[in-house]
Amino acid sequence: MNKHEFLKPAALATAVGGMIVGGALSLVLFSNGSGDPAGEVAEKKPLYWVAPMDPNYRRDSPGKSPMGMDLIPVYEDGAGDSDTGPGTIKISPEVVNNLGVRTGTVERQALHSEIVSVGYVKYDEERLIHIHPRVSGWVEKLHVKAAGDPVKKGAPLYSLYSPELVNAQEELLLAMNRNNARLIEAAKSRLLALQIPDSFIDNLSKRKKVQQTVTFYAPQDGVVDNLNIREGFYVKPGTTMLSIGALDEVWVEGEIFERQAGLIKMNDRVSMKLDYLPGKTWEGKVDYIYPTLDSKTRTVRLRLRFANPNAELKPNMFAQITVHADGTDQMLMIPKDALIRTGSQDRVVLALGEGRFKSIEVQAGRQDAGFIEIIGGLNEGETVVTSAQFLLDSESSKTSDFKRMHKEDEIPSSAWVGGEILELMKDHRMVRAQHEPVEVWGWPEMMMDFGVAESVDIDQLTPGTTLHMEITKHDDGSVELTGIHVLSPGGGEVESSEPEGAIDHSQMDHSSMGHGQMNQDGMDHSQMNHGEMEPTEMDHSAHQMQGEG
């Protein structure tokens, strides 16, 4: 035997051993399908067995209900196997502790979102001024030499020689020589329209001497930007000579994702950090939310405003921004760790108490750093698993319907349904009726005995009466008729000749029944209506009629 032939049986034995160990571990954690530990099931004994569709039908041992369904055991804690729905698992406290199961409570609180993004420092465009000449001419002297130079309001920027300015000065002097007030006013207005300072016009009026160059001054404090001229340049109206931007307050433009746009509103607080000054934080606010979405990046632009008294923030700097969007509405929230996201649904593991857990579907909404909004699927005060939830979900999701059991809220205690009265037991104030399916309770069409409420006129419930009836379930498990709408009255009282538990074949659909699998022992075939039965569809192999030996 070579080495490879020897290793094959060894590998097979290892694989089989691993499967046995894994199966044993799963059996220890989640035994008996419903999750009850084996020891606990052995110790716990049912108090009685009850019919799934008739809580009044109780027996001391397992068996069948009058409808042929298996009876459900009821234990000392009062909970049947189906009380919490499919997928419920139960594990012992020791296993819960070993798995490290932690839980959180469903609470109502405001959403505190911190949206982190990046941005770039910009000039405050409301205070960004562009300098353009209103006449053509030549730059004789440039008083600012480079972009970025700081300037004060009233500081000289450049001196311009322009024939148009010379002519405008001469017109003013000519009007003054003629002492024509109307012409003087028109000449001064023209000089003002060409952005000639008042001080220059006053000096011209006093000295009465034309100046070949005119100096222009800064309209505000700030720094020079976009300096596009040098001395000797020829300029004309429309030429952008330079810009002056104020830096005592700046803008920061950032972008956020489309899904975050609904969390932010005007004047929300914003904090900002820059790499070149680590450890320092600037506080600002949301100044504007742009109304359009970038179709390529699927982002929304924000304009943030920050004070900059020391001019530490400079245009085009890269910044890290955090928008603190504090909501005011109280929303249903769970810890973010509790939510399990899959490709088709969101769900959580609901802690039902006493070691019982179940995976249920929820509808998730917005989220912040530690919590997530729940739009549907949970109620305030319920408990969800926040640690080891994936292990519990992997077991519960195998059989879970992912629905909650709301016995009080979602399942009504009464329902209207069509039916027919079969027997009136007036002395006991009860009736036997055949009713249509009750979908809200999961009841099929069947025959049941009902108590009759005092508010209902029992004399109208004669056999053969067809009606709409309101069935009400009480806390003690009993059911009774609490409302009726008679559609067709019956013909009178009829005593039932059927023994208790007998089946009324006149109300049965025989088209899909296999008589070969029926228990014929307690059936009285003399009461059967054979006129509508198709003999070719019946299995007579095990059919023994009464009277045969």
Molecular structure report:
- By secondary structure, the protein is an alpha+beta fold.
- The protein folds into five domains: 3-78, no CATH class; 86-124 and 246-410, Elongation Factor Tu (Ef-tu), domain 3; 128-244, OB fold (Dihydrolipoamide Acetyltransferase, E2P) (Beta Barrel); 414-488, OB fold (Dihydrolipoamide Acetyltransferase, E2P) (Beta Barrel), CATH 2.40.50.320; 510-542, no CATH class.
- It is 16% helix and 36% strand.
- The protein has helices spanning 3-29, 38-43, 93-99, 163-178, 181-193, 198-207, 389-396; strands at residues 48-50, 58-59, 72-74, 89-90, 102-105, 107-123, 128-131, 137-142, 150-151, 156-161, 213-217, 222-225, 234-235, 242-245, 249-257, 269-273, 281-294, 299-307, 318-335, 340-341, 346-353, 356-367, 371-376, 383-387, 414-425, 430-435, 446-452, 466-473, 479-488.
- The strands form six sheets. A six-stranded antiparallel barrel has the order 6-15-18-17-16-19. The chain has a five-stranded mixed beta barrel with strand order 25-26-27-29-28.
- Strand 16 (269-273) and strand 17 form a beta hairpin.
- Helix 4 (163-178) runs antiparallel to helix 5 (181-193).
- The longest helix has 27 residues, at 3-29.
- Residues 1-42, 77-82 and 493-549 have low confidence and may be disordered.
